[in-house]
């Protein structure tokens, strides 16, 4: 099994995916353990002083003005976890919780949180045992971190609350820890707060969305090429020299992908045949421009994610050396900061939802064109076997249109909203968790939209008799049919076919099939 070693300098997107989706094991590096020990010594030294230190010897949020005496500090850390584990609604997905916990562990191991090595090791042990805390949909405003979701995870470390075992059964967390030989943690100064105060949930969902969208943008290039073929369009608009004079990297990549798929097609270039047209419709001709803009949005979001993956997000943070106005000079200090604010992540999560909505919209327009006998250049109405007796793909396009409409609603930015909390102490929040949750839905629906275009375009290409599709197109059609995505014929129960097309796209089989001919797509 793959092992991810967590050090002090952050993790990579591939590390997150390996742990969240691949079940990779986690180890702490010797450097991380040393950093944990050093930071803890700073916290212990400050805790022994009479001066109040936020998060160490004070209350939290709007209650930070109270100085907490030493005998109550362990109770304070337990209480913050218990009281903040206040999520509601349905459970979030296992992969989201694993990413959330792993990314919190990443920050803990940075040496800036003051958490003891044994707490960090317990976090790794819980993940390695396949124990997944029950985390609920609602409870994060995306500022002061994903508080409620992280609190439910910390509760599991304490042996409290509920969690899902490796068998998928939800049970009391204490029982699961005992079965796997894991001792519940007894939290000390600052540790409860350090386990809660991060943007780890929204970051984990961003990383996974980027991975999924990378595949979906390649998939959309393939289905756009198939639609162009089926509509007897021209591939001249994909010429590299046309895209070089508007040098957006994503646009050039999308055009190159479409051109690679169409290489060797006998269906392209017939736009001047029986029903001459000067140009193809925008949904066909401008496919690289729209998909390219989305790709460049992905590139920007990936840059933000990489910075966050290298960050240590906590409040307060432990810093070594230097001088603090509050604590004077010394070997280390604890400082309050605003790095927990989720705005950098929230903005790109919302930006990606906008890009996903537009990609879905243009794919639906191409599908509709394939089904309209007045615009499909000789294809039967709705690609039906016997139009009038058969309805063909009429309602498949309805379903696709409903999904597109939903994507437009999901494109409304969550990060444009803010609602004050904690007695106006936390008076501006990012809503990044909400942005991440709606992006997951958007990505899910975009997959279905591309699957419907695939279903329609492969059927339409097969209905073009006498002309041979490109080798890559034929490879896609052959693989799709083998995967249960059936071809032309009389009306039948369509939902299973669409489900097969969805799985074909979602699992990356569409891209793999095309790449057997084209080589790696960009």
Describe the structure.
- The chain has 522 residues and is mainly alpha-helical.
- It has 19 helices and eleven strands.
- Strands 4-6-7 form a three-stranded antiparallel sheet. A two-stranded parallel ribbon has the order 1-2. It has a two-stranded antiparallel ribbon with strand order 3-5.
- Strand 1, helix 1 and strand 2 form a beta-alpha-beta unit.
- The relative contact order is 0.12.
**Poorly predicted ranges (pLDDT <50, ≥5 residues)?**
324-329
Biggest sheet strand order reads: 4-6-7
Give me the oligomer status. single chain
Largest sheet report:
3 strands, antiparallel
Give me the number of helical elements: 19
The pLDDT mean sits at 94
Order of helices and strands: EHEHHEHHEEHEEHHHHHHHEEEEHHHHHH
Give the C-alpha Rg. Answer: 27 Å
Structural class: mainly alpha
Give the DSSP E fraction (strand runs of 2 or more residues). Answer: 5-15%
Percent helix among the residues? 40-55%
Distance between the termini: 29 Å
Q: Any idea what the shape is?
A: elongated
**Total beta strand runs:** 11
Subcellular location: Cytoplasm
EC number: 4.3.1.3
Catalytic activity: L-histidine = trans-urocanate + NH4(+)
Protein name: Histidine ammonia-lyase
């Amino acid at each position: 099994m793959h092992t991810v070693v967590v050090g002090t300098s952050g993790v990579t997107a591939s590390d997150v995916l390996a742990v969240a989706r691949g079940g990779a094991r986690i180890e702490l590096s010797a450097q991380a353990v040393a950093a944990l020990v050093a930071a803890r010594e700073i916290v212990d030294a400050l805790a022994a002083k009479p001066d109040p230190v936020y998060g160490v010897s004070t209350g939290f949020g709007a209650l930070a003005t109270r100085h907490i005496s030493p005998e109550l500090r362990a109770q304070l850390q337990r209480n913050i976890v218990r009281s903040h584990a206040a999520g509601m609604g349905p459970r979030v997905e296992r992969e989201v919780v694993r990413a959330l916990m792993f990314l919190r562990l990443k920050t803990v191991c940075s040496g800036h949180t003051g958490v003891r090595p044994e707490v960090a090791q317990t976090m790794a042990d819980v993940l390695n045992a396949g124990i997944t805390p029950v985390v609920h949909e609602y409870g994060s405003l995306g500022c002061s971190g994903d508080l409620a979701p992280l609190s439910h995870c910390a509760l599991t470390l304490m042996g409290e609350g509920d969690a899902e075992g490796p068998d998928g059964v939800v049970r009391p967390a204490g029982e699961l820890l005992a079965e796997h030989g894991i001792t519940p943690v007894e939290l000390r100064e600052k540790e409860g707060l350090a386990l809660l105060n991060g943007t780890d949930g929204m970051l984990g969902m961003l990383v996974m969305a980027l991975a999924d969208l990378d595949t979906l943008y390649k998939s959309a290039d393939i289905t756009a090429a198939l639609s162009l073929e089926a509509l007897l369009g021209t591939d001249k608009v994909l010429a590299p020299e046309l895209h070089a004079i508007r040098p957006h990297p994503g646009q050039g990549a999308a055009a190159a992908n479409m051109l690679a798929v169409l290489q060797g097609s006998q269906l392209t270039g017939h736009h001047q045949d029986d029903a001459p047209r000067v140009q193809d419709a925008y949904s066909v001709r401008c496919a690289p421009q729209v998909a390219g803009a989305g790709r460049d949005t992905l590139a920007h979001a990936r840059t933000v994610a990489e910075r966050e993956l290298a960050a240590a997000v906590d409040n307060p943070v432990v810093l070594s050396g230097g001088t603090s106005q509050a604590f004077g000079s010394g070997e280390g200090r604890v400082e309050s900061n605003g790095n927990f604010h989720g705005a950098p992540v929230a903005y790109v999560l919302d930006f990606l939802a906008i890009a996903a909505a537009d990609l879905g919209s243009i794919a639906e327009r191409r599908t509709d064109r394939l089904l309209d006998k007045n615009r499909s250049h000789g294809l039967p109405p709705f690609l039906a076997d016997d139009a009038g007796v058969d309805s063909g793909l009429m309602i498949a396009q309805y379903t696709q249109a409903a999904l597109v409409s939903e994507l437009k609603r999901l494109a409304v930015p969550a990060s444009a909203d803010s609602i004050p909390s904690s007695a106006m102490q936390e008076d501006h929040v990012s809503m990044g968790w909400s942005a991440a949750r709606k992006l997951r839905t958007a990505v899910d629906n975009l997959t279905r939209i591309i699957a419907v275009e695939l279903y329609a375009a492969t059927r339409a290409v097969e209905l073009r008799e006498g002309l041979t599709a490109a080798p890559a197109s034929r490879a896609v059609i052959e693989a799709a049919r083998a995967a249960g995505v059936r071809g032309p014929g009389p009306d039948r129960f369509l939902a299973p076919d669409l489900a097969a097309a969805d799985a074909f796209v979602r699992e990356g089989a569409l891209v793999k099939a095309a790449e057997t001919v084209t080589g790696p797509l960009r």
